Every structure is written in structure tokens, then in C-alpha cells.
Fold this protein.
Amino acid sequence: MKEYFIETYDLNKWYKEVMALNKITVKIDRGIVGLLGPNGAGKSTFLNIATAQLRQSSGEIYVEGSEVWNNPEILKRFGFCPEQEILFEWMTGRKFVRELAQISGLSREAANKAAVEAIKLVGLTEAMDRAIKGYSKGMRQRIKIAQAIVHDPEILFLDEPLQSTDPLVRRELVQLIQKLGRDFGKNILISSHILHEVERITNKILLIYSGRAIAQGSISEIRELMDKIPFTIRIKTPDRKRLATILLDYDFVLNVAPDIENFEYINIRTNNSNAFYKLIQELAVESKVKILEMATLDAGLEAIFDYLTKRK
Amino acid sequence: MSVFNRSYREYKGEIKGRFFRIWSIATQTFRVQFSGKKIIFLLILCNLPVISFTLMLIFSAIFFPAFVREFFLGGLGGVDATMYTIINFSFNPGLIFLPIVFICALNSGTIANDKKNNSLALYFSRPITRIDYAIGKALSVYMVSSFVTFVPWFVFLVTFNLLEGVSGLAIKTVIMTYLSTFASGFLIVFFMGSIVLYFSSISKQSVLGGILSILVLFLPSLVASLIAEFIEADWIQYFSIALIIVAAVFLIFGSPSTSMFGMNFFESTLSGGVAITLMITIGIIFLLMTINRLYREEVS
Amino acid sequence: MDAISFKMNAGANALLGPNGAGKSTLIKILLSYLKADQGEAQLLGHDIFKEGMLIRQKVGYMPEHFAIIPGVNAVKQVSLLGRISGLPKEEAMQRAHETLQYVGLNEARYRKVKEFSTGMLQRLKLAQTLVNDPELIILDEPTNGLDPNGRIDMIELVKEISKEHGINLIVSSHLLPDIEATCEFATIINKGAVVAQGKISELTYQETRSVEKKNMKVEIRGDLERFLAALQTKGIPFQLFENTILVQYSDEEISTVLLKLAYENDIQIRTMVPSEAILEDVFVHRIADMNNKNGLPTKETKIEVSK
């Protein structure tokens, strides 16, 4: 049996009559996974259940094949970076990480060593002996990640790590998270409500909307599955008229229109992207139609989110 | 045939002046502070002396024969003496906590709630100065506070005059009574309101502001009564809010003779001039402190 | 904040900078929440120190954080702020209704502001900036905390306000894609000094030009390994990021070559666009440059926003 990163079966969570999660059944592959959804969609509840801080009302959840509730063995392998900004303000960064490493079960010397290493990894070595209350937002996020990775967990849960950071810090954090995922081979679940941030880190996502999972998988695959919605493809070509005439003969091409803003481009709508891309390549090679650029306009995460939430 | 644009509309009309803006702040705040279900209960409780006097008048007019009524009203004295008596009842040292608690409780959120909800950022991005804002808020506090002072008193006065009738000679006294009532009411409102306004502006917590202003109004009296155990001096009485209010009102009403049924209950021994100066000065100081506080306020 | 001097054009302007760069301080000075220590500044042609009232008459400000007037519903809040801006009572009430409808709070107009969600509060804040028909609106993080649909709506609204109604904009935000969608000009400040300023399209164009190697962003459907191997045998240099292949190129023929290569190997090319710099690249590079250089700031504070 293939071991998934996270598996859930009919996962439900109720707070009295408030429904936080509703029948979530997903199998998420290993790697860096984005947990996306608007505010209040249930992202934090999902994360808290996955890290056994909350117990689901019903259903099952397995992380790396084992149940999480009341299972210290698996919890040891978790690192969690909470959303809250409130830390132990008076501690120095090093002490903060060290104390938490000790709580995770490391001996004093080992904890000290691990803390220094984790802080080095997040790039805070210079500031580690300063009190946390003097840290900027980016530094706080990084010290939070440092405490999450100090006991060298295989699984990381990051709750809104990019929240209200400026672009500089965000770029650094994105690189750090990618490094953790790729070079250190950790499985990471990142929650965020800003789609394009996550799109940059990973293309594996779980989309939650008002307590229900609405999509899961890689972004391009999800878009493929939604084949009922026509694709808009933008092509830059010097042979506009010729290409347009040829394309209109095919019944999977719904519409061919010159771009309003830039007349070097044409926009094509098609309901069969597979056939269309095949055709374009054929035309380019066989009929020598010159094609300079090509892009699908509504294949991004935002477009997908828009389609998926508007229909319901 | 036309298609009308329903979207954004430009405005090229009249722009109102400063007083309109201040008045908008004042009325809006008044409406917010002076709402809720408990208000009616509080109002009745705090105005119990006035209400009972008014009801007494009305009942005596309906049920009692003329000579009983004559005797009764005559016992109270003229219109000015009656009014003075009522003020004394409302603000005597035993009952003064009612209006004080009312004023402090209802106004403590005036600025504190704005700070809590970050409204200052909204107000101060508008074309008003911080003084305008402070004046608007102060006006609201005075309006709320007037509901335990001259508003119910006027109700009583009107009732009294309607039942008694005003004869030609008494008209001057009646007008003077109205003016004195307003003056003493406003003096009390200005004095207490300014203090509450200041304490409302010091923190985000309206409860804290309320408690502090109640303390500030009561503590001097308490201290004075403690000191009075050891030292005997007239000036100690100036620490008591109730006593200076009565002294001020006594002077404003032109020292009326309040011999009720031959006994002189409510004659003040303190100097009214000192009392009035004290109240106005303290009021102005606290108002200025509020404005100063607002100017130092950091708006996020 | 150190001495800073710049001019902003009329139109949609972005005010950018990392946390603590002095953006908020600058906005506060423009609205005379704070006093500048020295220097001079003009907004819409008015001196901000002498004609603060006049400026605030013509400016709408949308604060970054939660800000409501307690105890009232949306219409009352907006109309009160309209009246404080000097609109007569009836006009203020009418405009409050109109602007609330305009920002899409039609149904929620009579509800208490306390019950509003983040998205609704953001719209309410936008409505109150518009109620007095300002010439300039200053938006501080207008899309912060909004969910994806809310963000798109907000961007559309802001765009419409600036494009169709000709209201000048100063937007400050950390979400640079939103800035690219709404603004025409950008001013990037850091440590109280201007790092870069100009039309966003020109800034990104310069940034693209400054990178020496041209890259083509390619995404494919099919056997990735096979395509990469084919690229290698052809001797085309490339880099791989997640699922995106960055192919270095020097002339436009590359697209034909790539398509042919894909066709022969039975692979579909899904995306093939030259990688262009975005505002974020400009932002990150310019600020990194400045942090390295540490140049001396100028002496005088001069801020001017011309109409």
C-alpha cells in the first residue's frame, strides 16, 4: 500500500452547531503541500486536527499511515509553526528554541546544538542572542520555523507562515521553505489564504472552502479535470490571420479573437486543451506557422479557485 | 429616453462649516451613549426625587381640595424655593451617588470606545481639528448628563407653573427660576462631565474610565470626612462634591428662604462664589487636559 | 524616518517599501496625524502644514487596521463621516447609501458594523473614503486579510475608481501582484529614502533588460525526463524549477526549435513565455542594492503630489 502524507476519511469537526469541517476525504501525496482557502474556511481546524491539538468529531485521519490522536510516536516526528504572533518575548531567540527542543525530549547539550543549527538554517545566527521582543515580523516567522525544525522532524505544519510579511521577507521565507522541502526531504503542509504566494512554493494543493475539500492535487491536473470549463490560450504570432483561419475549421476551437490591448496576440478559447495543443504543435512544425509565445490564461490557482467556488 | 448612471456620483455641492461638523459628532455620540434598555430604569432611579415631587403635585391637584393644596404648596415656598429644595434632595450627600454614577457610567465610553475601535483614525482623516472632536464629544457628554439635571427639572417647573398658574407679579420670579435652574444644572453637568470626559480619554477601557471618574468625584469627600474627625475647619467642607454643589446652587438661586413648615433645612454655610469658581475651574482644567491628551494621541 | 524627497504623478500611485521603511509614517504626515520635524510637503498643490484642513477635505483615507465607529450600522457610520467632511445631512445620507451600494454592501447596509466580516469591513472602509467625493484616496493595505474572491472584487473596485472616476490613488501594500493590477506608478521607499520611482511597466522593463540572459519559461505535459534529455542532446542550456523549465535563449527562433523538439518526442508544450521581471523583482533587487550601498540621504524633506 502506498503511504500517503495525509489521508482522511469522512473527517468532520463541529463546534456545537458550527460546522468547521465537513466530510473531508482526501489522500495527499508527500512533499510540500499548500492548504488553501479563504479566512474561516477551516484551514486552521484541519491543521489542528492533523497535529492532534483538536480531536475530530468523527472520521479518521492518518499522517504517514498512522493515527495522530493519542499517538506520541507520530507526534514526535511533527514540527508545528503556529499562526500566533505571541512568543516568549523576554527570551533570546536561542533560548526560546533551546527550551522547546528540550521539551521535545532532547538533552541539554543536544538541545543547545540543535537550536544553534536550526537557527543557522533559518538565517538568524546574528540575532539569536537578542530578546525576541526586538525581532521584526520576518525574524519572528523565522524563529517560529526554527523552533518547529529544531528536533529534526520529518513532517512540518506551517500555519500562515507568510502572513503580513513584506515582499523581501516573503521571498526569503519561500526559499527557506523550499529548501526544507527539497534539500531536507521534509513533508510540509502550509496553510495560507493568499493563493499566489503558495503557487510559488508548490503546485500540490488542498483547497478548502467553507469546511469542505473542493480540490486536491497538482494545480495543472486539477485544471485538466475541470474540462467542462473552456481554456483561454494566448498566442503571440506574426501569422495571426493564417493561424486564425486554420483554427476556425476545428470544432473544439470555440472562439478566436485578437487581444484588445496588444495586437500581436490572439486569444483562443477551446474546450479540448489536449487536442488543441497537439494541433498547435502540428501546425508549427508541419505548416510552419510561426508561434513565438503560448500561455494558458485561466489555468492558475486563482482561476481554479474562482471556478470552483462560484459554481456552488 | 435616458440611461441613468447608478454608479459613483461626484459631489459639487455645499460644504458645511465647522459647527455643523462638531454638532454631528456630538449628536451621533449622544445617540450611541444614550441608548439601550437599562437607560429608562437608570433615568427613573436617578431622578426619583424630581419624579416624586412632580407626581405629588399632580396628585394633589387631582385629589385634594383646594385648601389642602394651598397649605401644601405654601409649605414648600415659592417656585424658586421649591426648585431649590428639589435640587437639594437630588444632590444631598446621601443621594448624590445616583447622578454621579449615572453620569460616569453613561459617558465613560465616549472617547474610550472610539480608541478601542480605532475610530480616531476615521475621525482625524476628516477635515476637523482635534479640538473640534473634543468639543463634539464634550457636548455629547453634557447632553447625556443633562438628563439627570436640568431636563427633569424643567419638566417639574413646567408642571408647577401649569398647575399653579402664573400671576402678573410672579412672572419675573418664574423667569429667574428657569434661568437659575438652567445655570445650576449646566454648572453641575460641565463640572462632572469634563471630569468623566477626561477619564474616558485616558484608556481604551470604558469601565476603567468610569471607575476612575467615580473615584475622583467621591474620594475627596471621603478624605474630607476623615480629616474632619481631627481638624475642625470650614474649608474642609469644600472637598465634598455635594456641599459645594449645594453652595453654588444656593447662590445661583439668590439665597431663597427655604423654611419648610417653619424649619430652615437647606441653607448653605459655604461661600457660593468660591464653590462656583472651583467647579468652573476644575471643569475647564479637565477639558483642557482632554484636548491635550487627544493632541498627544498616536493614531494608528 | 530620514530626510526624503520625491514627487508623485497624478493617477494611480503605489507607495511601497519593506516593513519599517516609513510608509505609514509618511502617510500619517500627509494626513497631519504626525508633524514632520522639518521640510515641506505639498499634496494636491496644497501645503500640508498650513492647509491640512483643506487637504483632508479633498482626501479619503482607508486605514490599514480594523477601524469602526462603535454602536452604529454601516449607513450611519458612513453618513456621519460624510457630515464631518461637511456634507449637509440629507446629502450625506444619500451618498452613504450610494457609496455602500457602490462597494457592494447593499444588503448589509443596515447591519451593525460590529458583525461585519473582514471582507465587509474592508469594503466599508473603502465606502467611507469615497463618501465626500475626494480627489485623492489613500489606501493602506486594501487587500490585506481578504480571501481570493474578495481580493479580486476589491482590485476591480479600486481600478474602477481610479480609471473611470479619475480619482487619484496612493496605495500601500505588501501584495505586489495587487499593486500591479491597480496602479500605474510606483514609488519604492526604504529607510526613509526613495529607492525607485516611475511607471511600473517601465520599472519592470528595465529590470528585465538588466538581467543579461534571456529565459523562456516552458511548461510541458508528458515525459519530462525525455524532454530534458532531448534538450541536452540539442545543447540548449536550461534550468529546472519544480515543473517549470527555464530555457536560455538568444533569438526568437527558440520557440520553433522547442515546438519541433516537443513534436518529435510526442510531448505537449503547455506554456512557453519569455520570463519577464515582475514588480517584486524590482522591489527586491532595488532594496538589496540600497542596503548594500548605504548611500547618504539628502538633507531636505520634500514631498509633492501634484494634481
